[in-house]
Amino acid sequence: MKPRVYPSELRSYHYCPRLLFFELHFGRRRGLLERLNLFLRSLYHLVLQALARARGFRTEEPIELDMGSYVLKGRPDEYLVEDGKVLVVEIKTTRAPREGAWLGDYLQGAAYAMILMHKAGAKEAWVEVRYLDRSARVQVREEHLQLVKFAAEEVLAVKEGIVPFANRSERRCARCPFREECLDLGDEPGEMGEWVTRDRSIF
Ligand code: SF4
């Protein structure tokens, strides 16, 4: 069976490639508070998805695309395919960046858009990321699809055991359940995934 890459993993990879490595190889470590948050988030999603279905959107449907060496597979929160155009909506219970959308959130949506464009033969697509404070809609361009493929290849390499870049920040690392293991591993110059520090948002 071909390996799977999930669009949500592209988002996690962009947040911190090293953290995705730990989660994939050591399992996710969730405290009580995080589990409670997850439960509340899923209730929030259920309400929004019921509203979306009433507006004609499809929600949480499994979609996939054979990419040759792997299968890209996931469930977009909401999507619409109409007149050869695709709209993917990603719902996030976080705050938006100052402008546009966080690049990791957008990459997740663009991966879904790539699958849907291929299936529907659509030439145009948009990703809308809905944050708690506002929404951002970005048109999917060819270079975005190339970035999705590039990031997916790196996620595959992480699954195979390559230790990627540690995207250190005081805020991110303070609440990371793997910070001790991560410090033990240390940092090497030019580790795979260093590009995630270049652009944090897109608009
Ligand atoms: S400690 Fe920081 S850099 Fe290391 S995996 Fe966790 S979030 Fe990433």
Q: In CATH terms, what is the fold-level topology?
A: Lambda Exonuclease, Chain A
| Total number of beta strands | 10
Structural class: alpha+beta
Number of domains: 1
Write down the Rg.
17 Å
Sheet having the most strands? 5 strands, mixed
The amount of beta strand, in percent, is: 15-25%
**What is the strand arrangement across the widest sheet?**
2-5-6-8-9
- Bound molecule kinds, no repeats: iron/sulfur cluster
Helix content class: 40-55%
Instruction: List low-pLDDT spans.
Output: none
Shape: globular
Q: How are the SSEs placed, and which strands pair?
A:
Blueprint: E1 4-5, H1 7-15, H2 17-26, H3 32-54, E2 58-59, E3 63-66, E4 71-74, E5 78-82, E6 85-91, E7 101-102, H4 103-120, E8 124-130, E9 135-139, H5 142-159, H6 170-174, H7 179-185, E10 201-202
Bound molecules: iron/sulfur cluster (SF4).
List keywords for this structure.
203 residues; alpha+beta; Lambda Exonuclease, Chain A; 3-stranded mixed beta sheet; 7 helices; 10 strands; 44% helix; binds iron/sulfur cluster
Task: Summarize the entry for a quick read.
By secondary structure, the protein is of the alpha+beta class.
Explained architecture:
This protein has 203 residues and is α+β, with helices and mostly antiparallel strands. The protein has a single domain (4-202), classed as Lambda Exonuclease, Chain A, CATH 3.90.320.10. It contains 7 helices and 10 strands. Strands 2-5-6-8-9 form a 5-stranded mixed sheet, with helices on both faces. A hairpin with a 4-residue loop joins strand 8 (124-130) and strand 9. Helix 1 (7-15) packs across helix 2 and helix 4 (103-120) packs across helix 5. It is globular and about 50 Å long. The protein starts with a strand and ends with a strand. Residues 16, 18-19, 22, 166-168, 172-173, 176, 178-179, 182 line the site of iron/sulfur cluster.
